[in-house]
Design goal:
- This protein is an alpha/beta fold.
- It folds into two domains: 1-94 and 185-270, P-loop containing nucleotide triphosphate hydrolases (Rossmann fold); 104-182, no CATH class.
- It has helices spanning 2-10, 52-59, 87-93, 110-118, 126-131, 134-153, 169-182, 199-216, 227-233, 251-255, 258-269; strands spanning 14-23, 26-36, 41-45, 67-73, 79-82, 95-97, 187-191, 219-223, 236-241, 244-249.
- A six-stranded mixed β-sheet has the order 6-7-8-3-9-10, with helices on both faces. The protein has a four-stranded antiparallel β-sheet with strand order 2-1-4-5, covered by helices on one side.
- Bound molecules: adenosine-5'-triphosphate and magnesium ion (MG).
Amino acid sequence: MMQAASSTAALPVLEVRDLSKRFGGLLALSDVNLNIHQGEVVALIGPNGAGKTTLFNCITSIYTPSEGQVVLRRPQGEECILNTHKPHEVTRLGMARTFQNIRLFQGMTVLENVMIARHCRTRAGVFGALLRPAWVRREERAIEEKSYTLLQYMGLESLYAEEARNLSYGQQRRLEIARALATEPFLLLLDEPAAGMNPQETLELKEMVLDIRKAFNLSVLLIEHDMSMVMSLSDRIYVMEYGCNIASGTPDEVRHNKQVIKAYLGEDDA
Ligand SMILES: Nc1ncnc2c1ncn2[C@@H]1O[C@H](COP(=O)(O)OP(=O)(O)OP(=O)(O)O)[C@@H](O)[C@H]1O
Ligand SMILES: [Mg+2]
């Protein structure tokens, strides 16, 4: 029994096995393999169109893979093979993500954006919200406090009453992360979190990612084009090109990999 528990702990929290995705005649992903262990920050890099976002969409059940499997192992050791799950069910299982194209409620305040995301973890249904008994009001108060705390982690607390549309691009990306955290994930997927940020904002974002990993016991998978961020933040890196894994390893291993250098230089040549 003890042995079973400790061997479970060593298994990855996310395992992508031989995953392929076809769009008509286009093979966007071809036999992709990837895993993330508890507490790791893993980066997914590769030229434009390599299939990175498509892989995120398959992992989070927005797309159904054509072949292969996505296995999620929750902190309690429970194993879920994602196949017929809906995206919101995947969120409830403990995987949260942000999007390459920011998805916020632009007309709502910063705090409301986080509070709404949190509702997947609350007890009050529609009737509770309408009748508002004391326990619903207490729950709402707790959501408000927790949401504000998440804004503090992402450096947005002074903007809590601002409409999301008034935030800078970098602030909106950080708000997306606060919203993802509100769902209480154990695994966080970030699709180009530093896109549109200046070098100072990118540096701050890196620190925030490390802070939240520690504070919320997270494992993180991120797609990112900013190489200084990728190299300094990641424990391991996977490199994709034309829908295939072409390399993986530590930042140092990947930096010196000939195929990786060629993929990036090849892109420059194009
Ligand atoms: N829903 C879809 N239908 C058809 N083709 C798609 C769809 N989604 C993605 N693709 C195609 O799959 C390939 C991989 O796209 P993807 O967006 O995953 O690349 P990416 O690595 O995220 O690129 P970028 O760095 O530019 O974001 C591209 O050729 C793209 O046009
Ligand atoms: Mg993408």
